[in-house]
């Protein structure tokens, strides 16, 4: 018990005396067609950037100079200059782009086009579309393996995780997962691929080498119907020990021991929690709450929600510049 | 005698005499507290039943609003914890008043009141002793609640102390004032029905006031003017290292008013006790 008392106390004291580094988060607001800028030093919205219609997927470019945001109803990816915090350019995608990912060098962008059953490949330097890969119905989740050789796309209606060879741009394997796969994430050591299934209510653990499901994480929250628990966003710490899963309308973040795949704790956040992003130092995890129009801040070490910040309408995605 | 050799001040009595009196009254309350273990246990069980059982069934009552001093969404258990802390103090205050009625019936009060020290001082010592007992009960509850994931910031356990002292004094003074008007121990059941329950339920202890306002504007104003609401809010804010200034002023003023009322009521030349004590006290 003393250990339990002492450690958070020391951690809290250290947090109080150590000045926290300030980072900037960009949050896409699906309904208000804006991107909110959050300063982590003040924990407030410092700017709101007007973007195209229905912004969802959002990510920093690898060099940290730009933020890319998929504006689905305008069928393009918009480019925000982080220096001026204004939209300065756009990239071509297929119809209704939703989520995307980049290769390690930040030269190629892979975009899931929800209404076209394709993944569009864009050259970020030339800012041109260089190809498409046909995938299942309603593609959404996108992840690239740490070695950059395999691209994962999940298709919501086909209920599959597609393994795409980035060299040949061909699907090399399909893994059937539970209903409505929304998001995919690799562990940094490539040992596991995690895929969340919104309707199935599970997260599938896939062996990326064998391309088979090796386990499933299930969730149970007292007082909530199973249908209300809909896993979507996934965040795995760099050391691969802890994972955070957004459970949508359950209004909870599940904390999972990433080695044993057991849920250790549920944290109450806002309504319809969707996606998340760690601050670059991994001290905090920010999660978007779509229906309550806010972003909750989780202290990663203490595993506590410390604050909730009001943003625009229907916040969807969130990104930090990674060093 | 020792009392004749020390310097006299404070209206004819020395500081040592005042301290001796305080020591005697606090010590008696402490002994009573230690010997009545079931009282301590019941003081803890009551809020814990609310926390473990009642709160489990009312998880959705808070809705989606973030209300100060909280900075994010909280579970219902977290919300009612300060209300249950105040409930401990409310029951303790009333129990102290019950013991005063008992003392009066048994004749023990005469021993206290024949002390040459000023009546207001005796009552204040009694009040302070009761508050100290309530602090022990509250911290024991907060310790158990911590294992139930109700963990305010560590500094909150310190910042809540002055709030607890003030609210404990207010509720104790209220109990004392009420006890002056109760002639027999049997009448104490009325205190439960007419004081404790209405004060507790018509407050922000169990539900936020904006929720009450949604269902009944009249009840909202009743809750708003209930001193217990302000004791709860004072404790709630202090537990998170903040000060609710309105509640602080209300609780302070109520404490003063109840205390003056109790001193007046226990003054044999003017007060309510003169109207004819019952039982053994004559």
Topology:
The complex is a heterodimer of chains A (323) and B (282).
Chain A lengths: L1 H16 L6 E6 L4 E6 L4 E7 L4 E6 L5 E6 L4 E6 L4 E7 L4 E6 L5 E6 L4 E6 L4 E7 L4 E6 L5 E6 L4 E6 L4 E7 L4 E6 L6 E5 L4 E6 L4 E7 L15 E3 L5 E5 L5 E6 L4 E7 L4 E6 L5 E6 L4 E6 L4 E7 L4 E6 L3
Antiparallel strand pairs in A: 1-2, 1-28, 2-3, 4-5, 5-6, 6-7, 8-9, 9-10, 10-11, 12-13, 13-14, 14-15, 16-17, 17-18, 18-19, 20-21, 21-22, 22-23, 24-25, 25-26, 26-27
Chain B lengths: L1 H4 L9 H21 L1 H21 L18 H31 L1 H6 L5 H29 L8 H26 L6 H14 L7 H7 L1 H8 L2 H13 L5 H21 L17
Helix pairs in contact in B: 2-6, 3-4, 3-6, 4-6, 4-7, 4-8, 4-11, 6-7, 7-11, 7-12, 9-10, 11-12
Characteristic terms for this protein:
heterodimer; A: 323 residues; mainly beta; 4-stranded antiparallel β-sheet; 1 helix; 28 strands; globular; B: 282 residues; mainly alpha; disordered N terminus
Low-confidence stretches of chain A: 1-6, 13-19
Tally the beta strands of chain A.
Answer: 28
The neighbouring-strand order within the major sheet of chain A is: 3-2-1-28
Sheet/helix structural class of chain A = mainly beta
Percent helix among the residues of chain B? Answer: over 70%
Structural class of chain B: mainly alpha
The number of helical elements of chain A comes to 1
Number of helices of chain B: 12
Mean pLDDT of chain A: 91
Task: Please give the number of β-strands of chain B.
Answer: 0
Mean pLDDT of chain B: 81
Give the H and E element order of chain B.
HHHHHHHHHHHH
Shape verdict of chain A: globular
What is the beta-strand fraction of chain B?
Answer: under 5%
Span between N and C termini of chain B? 31 Å
Q: Judging from the principal axes of the Cα atoms, what is the shape of chain B?
A: globular
Gyration radius over CA of chain B: 20 Å
List the quaternary state of the chains: heterodimer
């Amino acid at each position: 018990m003393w250990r339990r008392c002492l450690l958070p106390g020391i951690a809290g004291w250290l947090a109080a005396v150590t000045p926290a580094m300030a980072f900037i988060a960009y949050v896409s607001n699906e309904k208000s067609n804006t991107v909110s800028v959050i300063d982590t030093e003040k924990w407030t919205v410092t700017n709101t950037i007007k973007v195209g219609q229905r912004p969802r997927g959002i990510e920093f470019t690898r060099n940290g100079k730009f933020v890319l945001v998929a504006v689905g109803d305008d069928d393009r990816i918009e480019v925000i200059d982080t220096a001026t915090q204004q939209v300065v350019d756009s990239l071509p995608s297929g119809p209704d782009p939703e989520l995307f990912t980049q290769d390690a060098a930040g030269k190629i962008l892979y975009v899931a086009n929800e209404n076209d059953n394709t993944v569009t490949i864009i050259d970020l330097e030339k800012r041109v579309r260089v190809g498409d890969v046909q995938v299942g119905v309603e593609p959404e989740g996108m992840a690239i393996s740490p070695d950059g050789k395999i691209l994962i796309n999940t298709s919501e209606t086909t209920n599959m995780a597609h393994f795409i060879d980035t060299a040949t741009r061909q699907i090399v394997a399909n893994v059937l997962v539970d209903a409505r796969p929304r998001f995919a994430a690799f562990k940094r050591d490539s040992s596991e691929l995690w895929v969340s299934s919104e309707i199935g209510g599970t997260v599938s653990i896939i062996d990326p080498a064998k391309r088979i499901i090796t386990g499933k994480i299930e969730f149970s929250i007292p007082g909530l119907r199973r249908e209300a628990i809909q896993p979507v966003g996934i965040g795995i710490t760099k050391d691969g020990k802890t994972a955070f899963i957004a459970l949508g309308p359950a209004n909870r973040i599940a904390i999972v021991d990433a080695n044993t795949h057991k849920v250790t704790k549920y944290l109450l956040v806002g309504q319809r929690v969707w996606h998340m992003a760690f601050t670059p130092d991994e001290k905090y995890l920010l999660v978007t709450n779509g229906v309550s129009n806010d972003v909750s801040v989780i202290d990663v070490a203490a595993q506590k929600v410390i604050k909730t910040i009001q943003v625009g309408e229907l916040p969807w995605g969130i990104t930090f510049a990674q060093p | 005698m020792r009392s004749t050799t020390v310097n006299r001040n404070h209206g004819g009595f020395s500081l040592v005499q005042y301290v001796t009196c305080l020591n005697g009254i606090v010590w008696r309350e402490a002994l009573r507290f230690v010997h009545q273990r079931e009282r301590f246990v019941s003081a803890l069980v009551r809020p814990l039943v609310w926390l473990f059982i009642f709160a489990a069934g009312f998880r959705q009552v808070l809705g989606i609003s973030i209300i100060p001093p909280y900075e994010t969404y909280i579970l219902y258990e977290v919300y009612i914890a300060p209300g249950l802390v105040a409930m401990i103090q409310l029951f303790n205050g009333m129990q102290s008043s019950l013991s005063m009625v008992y003392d009066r019936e048994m004749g023990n009060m005469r021993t206290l009141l024949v002390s040459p020290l000023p009546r207001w001082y005796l009552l204040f010592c009694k009040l302070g002793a009761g508050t100290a007992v309530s602090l022990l009960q509250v911290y024991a509850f907060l310790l158990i609640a911590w294992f139930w994931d109700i963990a305010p910031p560590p500094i909150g356990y310190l910042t809540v102390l002055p709030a607890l002292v003030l609210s404990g004094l207010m509720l104790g003074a209220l109990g004392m004032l009420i006890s002056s008007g109760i002639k027999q121990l049997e009448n104490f059941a009325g205190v439960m029905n007419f004081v404790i329950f209405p004060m507790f339920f018509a407050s922000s202890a169990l539900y936020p006031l904006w929720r009450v306002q949604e269902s009944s504007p009249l009840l909202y104003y009743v809750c708003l003017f209930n001193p217990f609401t302000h004791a709860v809010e004072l404790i709630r804010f202090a537990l998170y290292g903040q000060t609710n200034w309105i509640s602080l002023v209300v609780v302070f003023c109520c404490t003063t008013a109840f205390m003056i009322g109790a001193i007046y009521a226990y003054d044999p030349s003017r007060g309510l006790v003169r109207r004819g004590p019952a039982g053994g006290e004559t």
